Amino acid sequence: MTPDLTPVSDEAALKRAYSCFPTGVVAVCRRTGEGDVGMSASSFATVSLEPALVSVCVRDESSTWPLLRSADRLGVSVFAAHQGDECRRLAGPTKSRFEDVHRSATPSGALFLAGAAAHLECSVLQEVPAGDHRVVLLRIHALSSDPNVEPLVFHASTFRALEARRARS
To answer: To bridge 77 with a disulfide, which of 40, 98, 116, 168 should be the other Cys (CB 3.0-4.6 Å)?
Structure first.
């Protein structure tokens, strides 16, 4: 049976279709002389092993990205399942983004959230214009990770948990 298709010009239908794809959520942050700057991103993807690359997508209208893009190093923290409130805070008003958010910075200014599933110290390699967003390629310079920490998953406009399934034998 053929699905009942809606024209892509229906923005609500397009957003609903995009929300069907579950994704991890990250914080992209840096420390500056004026204070800490950061944002949440739900469009994170691994790209390459050699060189080590990841990507995030950033809205062209973002007022935060211009403050991040020029950093020598950025901290990318993969949110853990218990960090939903921190994720929402980093997506909210800039003045209160870091309230009650435990964090630390490297000497290079990469800022990381405590308790995240993974931390990646990155630099901006390239920005590619893509519609009303930019695909930002980030080169990883150093990292730490704990696969035993459950990640925060964003699906259908809400946070969800993963379920481990055993392979059938």
So the answer is: 116
